[in-house]
Amino acid sequence: MTFRDYLDVLKDIVVSTAKGMAITLRTFFKVTTKGAITIQYPEVRDQIPLGSRGLLFNDVEDCISCKQCAAACPVDCIHIEADKKDTAGTPDFTKGGVRKTLDLKKFDIDISLCCYCGLCSAACPTDCLYHTKEYEYSVYERDKHIMDYLNYQR
Amino acid sequence: MTFQDVQNKLQSQLSSSILGVEDVKPDPSLKIAPRDIVTVVQFMKDHLQFETLGDLCGVDYPAQSSFCVVYHLQSYTHKMVVRLKCYLPREDGAEMPSLTSIFKAANWLEREVFDMIGVRFTGHPEMRRILCPEDWQGHPLRKDYVTPDYYNGMPVPLFFEDQTTVTSGETHS
Amino acid sequence: MSISQELVEGRLSQTTENLRTDELLLNMGPQHPSTHGVLRVVVTTDGEIVRAAKPEIGYLHRCFEKHSENVDYMGVAPYVDRLDYLASMNNSMGWAIAVERMVGIEVPRRAEFIRVIVAELQRIASHLLFFGTYGLDMGAFTAFLYAFREREKILDIFEMISGARLLYNYMWVGGVSRDMSPEAVTRIKEFIDYFEPKIDEYNTLLSFNKIFTERTKSVGIVDEATCHTYGLTGVMLRGCGVRWDLRKDLPYSIYNEVEFDVPVGSGQMGTLGDCWDRYFVRMQEMRESVRIIRQLIDRIPSGPHRGKVGKVVKVPAGESFTRTECPRGELAFYIISDGSAKPYRVRCKSPCFLNISTLNEITEGVMVADLIATIGSLDIVLGEVDR
Fold first, then answer.
1. Mind listing the pLDDT tens digit for each residue in A39-85?
2. pLDDT value of position C5
3. Does domain A56-151 have CATH number 3.30.70.3270?
C-alpha cells in the first residue's frame, strides 16, 4: 500500500462516517423536536392490543370440567379434578346454557410452567378459560404461581 | 429426474447394495445395505449430482428390534431429495461406516446420531457426544430410555418443594 | 550479563530463539457477548492468529425431538416456535406445512396469504436483528438502536395479529389461529411504506461505511464447494453466489404467485463469499420481503382463516421430509407417523447446526477479531443449534 492509497482509505473513512453521522444527527433533531420513541415504563404504559395473551383466567362458574384444556396443553400445567354431580339437585347451567354434569373440585394452573401458547383457550368449549391482558405478576415464592381458580383472589 | 430414475440407475449399477424400496406416503425411500452406504452415496454424489447431505438422523424401532439410520441426499441440479435408509440390529455396539470422507456435514450429524441413538460410526474422526454432556448416561432418543434420577448429584427432573415437576417428556401422560 | 553486553557479543538472536512461544488455549463463551447465545468456542491462538476454533454446543439443549414424541401434532407447534426464537413464524410455517403435507389438508387461500405476509415480516425482523447485532460485534452501536426501533414496530404488529410478541404459536395446522383484522392490514401497509426508505439509510449508516467494510471484506470466506460439503443453506449459500432459494426453486405455499429476486453475493467489496457478502445479501433480502408483502397485502381474499381440521389432528402412517426457507437457511422437518395421535419420531434439521459446524474450517489462520466477525456473519441462533 502506498502512502497515497493510505490517504485514500482515510478519506473514505472520514466521508462515509460523516454520512452516517448526518443520519444520526437528523434522528437526533427528530427525537428532540417531535418526541422520543422510548416511554418511561412504570409511569407510562404501552397500550396492549386486544387479544394479547397474558395471564390465564378461568371463570369457574362457566367451567364444565371437560378437561379439553388439560388435554390440549403441551406442557401439562393444568390440573383438574372433578366429581360426578349429584343428579338429584337442581340442574346447573353455564351462562351459555350448557348443562354442568360434573362438579369441579380443583382447577389449578401452574403459571410458571405455562408457555402462553393459547391452545387451551382455543380448545375451551364454553370460552370460560381465556388469556387476560395482565402481564405483571411476579411473586416472591414459587408456590404463588400456582393459580387456584376456585379460590381466586388477586 | 424422479425418484424412479434414481432407483433404476442405482439398481442397474449397484444392485447388490439396494435392498428394496419402502413405499411410504408421501415420499418413498430406498433401503440400503449398511456396509455399502459409502459406495452408494459416493456414486450418487459423483454420477447423479446429489451434491449435499441434507440430513442424517437415527430412528429407534424396538418393535422390529432395529435401529435405522436415515440419510437425506439433496440435489440442487435435480431439485430433489432422496431418502436412504439403513437398518441395523438393535444392540449397544451397532456400527455404521462413516460418511465423513464424502461429506464434512456428516461429522456433526453422525456425532448427534451417536449421542441420541447410540449408533457408532467407524472411521469418524471424533466419535463423542455433541448435545448431551460427555458423562451423560444412555441415549435419549431410544424409545426405552428412562430419564436418570440424578446427574452429578442434581435431581433430574427438577423437583420443586411443592412436587410440581419439570420433566423431559418421560412422565407426560 | 547485561543486554548491552549481549548486543556487543552478537548473542541477541540466540536469546530470542530461547524465548518460549506457545499456543494459548482460549475459552470463548458460553457466556460471551459476541457469541449470540450460549455457544462455547475453544480457540487455540498463536499470538493474534487463530489456529483452531472448535465450537462446543449443547448448552441450550431442550430435547425438542423427545418432547415431540410425547405431545400431539398441535402441541408440537409451541415447541417449534422455540427453536429459532427470532423467526418463530417461519419455523411454525415449516411445521404446519410438513403436517399438512402428510394429512393432505387444503389450506384456505386467505390463510396462505396471511401466512406469507407474516412470514416475510418475520424475515425482516430477523434480518434486522442480525443487522443490529452484527454492527454491535463490529463496534458500531448506533445501528443496533435503529434496528430495534424498526423491529419493535413489527413485534407490535405481531402482537396485534397473534397476541404474543416473540413466541406466537400463530400458524396452526390447517391455517392460522386468528384472522387478520383490517387494522392490522393498515398497520402493515404503513410499516412497509415507512420501512423501505430506511434500508437505504442503513446502507449509508453501516453497509458502505469504510470502517465496517474494511473489517468484513475478505474475512471468513466460504466457497461453493465448502457449502456443498458442509450442507450449508440459505444466506451462507447465496452469499457465495449460488442462486438457490426454496421459495423460488421449489415454491411452497403461494410463493409461486409473487415476483421477487433472489439476491446473491457479488464479491464487490473483497472476495466472493466473505462476511460482507453474506451481510449484504441479508440487507437485500429485506427489500425483497417488502416487495413480496407489497404484492400481497392489497389482495388478501376473504374467506375462512383455517381449514377443516378436527380438534386432534389425525395423521396417517407415513414419512415426510419437508423443507422451508427460513431466514437462517433451510429448515426441514422429518416426521415419521405410525397413525396415532402423536408423532413416532420428529427430526428437525436445523440450518444453524450445520452453519456453525464450518467455523473451524473457515476461521483457520485469521485474527481473533476476524473470528468475531465470522461468528456474527453466520447469524446463528443457539436455540436452533441445540434444539
1. 888 888 888 888 888 888 888 778 888 888 888 888 888 888 888 77
2. 66
3. yes
| Interface residue B163 vs chain A (CB under 8 A) | no
Give B124 to chain A, closest Cα distance, Å: 38
**Contact in structure between A57 and A129 (CB atoms under 8 Å):** yes
* Domain residue extents for chain A: 1-38, 56-151
Interface of A with B in 100-119 (CB under 8 A): 110, 113
In the CATH scheme, what is the homologous superfamily, with its name and number, of domain B3-166? NADH:ubiquinone oxidoreductase Nqo5 subunit (3.30.460.80)
Confidence band for B158, pLDDT divided at 50, 70 and 90: low
Write out A95-112 in H/E/C secondary structure.
Answer: CCCCEECEEEEEEEEECC
Among chain C residues, the shortest Cα distance to A11 is held by: C210
Give the span between the Cα atoms of C189 and C183, in whole angstroms: 10
Chain C interface, best mutation among A6, A53, A55, A77, by max C CB count within 10 A: A53
**Spatial separation of the C-alpha atoms in residues B43 and B13, rounded to whole Å:** 9
Rounded distance, CA C220 to CA C374, Å? 5
The residues, ordered by sequence, that sit 6+ positions from A61 with a Cβ below 8 Å of its Cβ are A94, A95, A128
Which residues in chain C have their CB less than 8 angstroms from residue A48's CB? Answer: 159
Confidence check on the interface: ipTM exceeds 0.90, yes or no: no
Chains in contact with B, where contact means 3 or more Cβ–Cβ distances below 8 Å, are A, C
DSSP C101-122: HHHTPPPPHHHHHHHHHHHHHH
| Domains and their CATH numbers in chain C | 3-52 (no CATH), 63-349 (1.10.645.10)
- pTM of the entire predicted model: 0.87
The CA–CA distances, whole Å, from C340 to C70, C71, C148, C313, C314 equal: 11, 11, 44, 10, 7
- Quick check: B164 and A76 CB within 8 A? no
C108 with C98: CB under 8 angstroms? no
| Side chain identity, residue C76 | V
* Cβ–Cβ < 8 Å for A134, A48: no
Contact A146/B at CB under 8 A:
yes
Burial C266-297 (b: 16+ CB within 10 A, else e): ebebbbbbbbbbbbbbbbbbbbbbbbbbbebb
